[in-house]
Amino acid sequence: MKEAAGTDRRGGAAFASGVSPVEARVESLRLPVADDHFCATFATPLPALPAVIFVHGWNGTQEFDLGHLRDAVAVGCAVLTVDLRGHDRDDPRHDHVSREDNLRDLLAAYDWLVARDDVDERAIAVVGFSYGAYLATLLTERRRVQWLALRSPALYPDEGWDVSKHALEERVELAEYRRHVQAPGGNRALTALAEFRGDVLLVCSQDDQVLPAAVAESFRGALVRASSITTRTISGADHELSHPDAKRAWADLLQDWLAAMIGGARRQAVVSALEARHEEVDGAGDPHERA
After folding, report:
1. pTM score above 0.70
2. Where do the structural domains in the chain lie, given as residue ranges?
3. Which listed residue, 42, 125, 155, 270, has the most CB atoms within 10 A of its CB?
4. CATH topology of domain 49-157+165-265
């Protein structure tokens, strides 16, 4: 079994340039045929899978993300969707749960997932919407994340961190805070994002009635160390993606991005394995002759 998640996963993705977060195995073979033989090369990904965690919005549920589960599995990922504590208005915890509580939920979900033998802890993607995107960004400060997809990310001041979500809007001027572009140094989530070194998908809704454009600008401005940044705006979409066309547009964007990220990592893994094989050949002669 794997070791439980620990503090060595802090700091987000920290992979050297050109090194894949997944691995592949390349073997040189000598296959018998009649009284002779021929040479072949066999390549395969290692059994552990990349994984995706979906995190819903402020009063959302995992139901919306279940529609994306199929697409993420189709590109070869293990997938976990969650219902954070207090997410449902009928949940007795709804009026008392705080951002700290929900971040602990996400940390627990991450730790459970990477402890599985069939999941590669170096190849984790987190997909978050609104409040869930905010929490996903904070997760990168505590755990190792390679791919981060943020749809209409929400932003909250650090003030009132332990205040219940229900009471937060009464304690801080959220609307006024969000009307201004915020610098990473003055916000915990943006500070975490400024240290993130993985790949990022940042998607906004053109007609977002909840979050002003300054919020997206704050997130985009914090991405100073990311390996790659893909930004998209869904035309005519509101915050919740109420129209079916907007939902389809987001699903297509996410699937294409995940496929590109996972596929690119797997291609790089094969390249790395082939390079290691060539070094072995250069150092010790033809591996087929040693088979």
Report:
1. yes
2. 49-157+165-265
3. 125
4. Rossmann fold (3.40.50)
